[in-house]
Amino acid sequence: MKQLNLSLPNWVDSFLNKQASIIPEPEDQMRFVLALTERNIREETGGPFGSAVFEIESGRLVSVGVNVVVQQNCSAAHAEMMALMLAQKELGHFDLGAAHLPAHRLVTSGKMCTMCLGNVCWSGVKEVFSSAEPEDVESIAGFDEGPTPPDYNAQLENRGINIVPEMLRHEGKAVLQLYVDLGGLVYNPTRKK
Ligand SMILES: [Zn+2]
Fold it and tell me: Which of 14, 33, 65, 183 could share a disulfide with 79, CB 3.0–4.6 Å?
């Protein structure tokens, strides 16, 4: 094998057809992402995580992502990774902060895990909005967020990436709880030695 092919679930097309393609208000962008996440849970197509990339100035939606780790047999297929990779593919550039492009923001249902934090740093986004905190993800849903740094927000700010955490956190936690209540699979629960 020498090619990778990752896809979002089929229902994403019909979901997007019913949504505005420009969402100017930050909290409305988060509501959109939480609705996307809830749909992924109810469709049973992946873990309880969703993300989207928007143009900061215009609020234009560039891409979405949901967690498709199990469906796609790929441990890297987190919602943030999918949204960022799809935005880069859509725009034809590995750097979403390239000089010829408008500035971009990642909106995500849960604060990034170790892997996604890394990719956010390399992706070129200028801003991140997140809802649920890592402790919510771990305590409610039981997923491992990995060894994230204690100075998480500062690490992003130092790289010129503005982070606004805990946006609609209560709603973000409710989506995680929904996944648990519906008996969603928690893959790779924190492994003990
Ligand atoms: Zn992640």
Answer: 65
Alpha-carbon distance 49 to 38, whole Å? 8
Instruction: Express each pLDDT in 97-140 by its tens digit.
Output: 999 999 999 999 999 999 999 999 999 999 999 999 999 998 99
Centre of ligand 1 to C-alpha 120, Å, is 10
The domain segmentation of the chain, as residue ranges, is 21-181
Q: Tell me how many helices (H) and strands (E) the chain has.
A: 8, 5
| Distance from Cα 57 to the centre of ligand 1, integer Å | 26
Q: Which two tokens stand for residue 124?
A: 């070129």
Cα(186) to ligand 1 centroid in Å equals 14
pTM score: 0.95
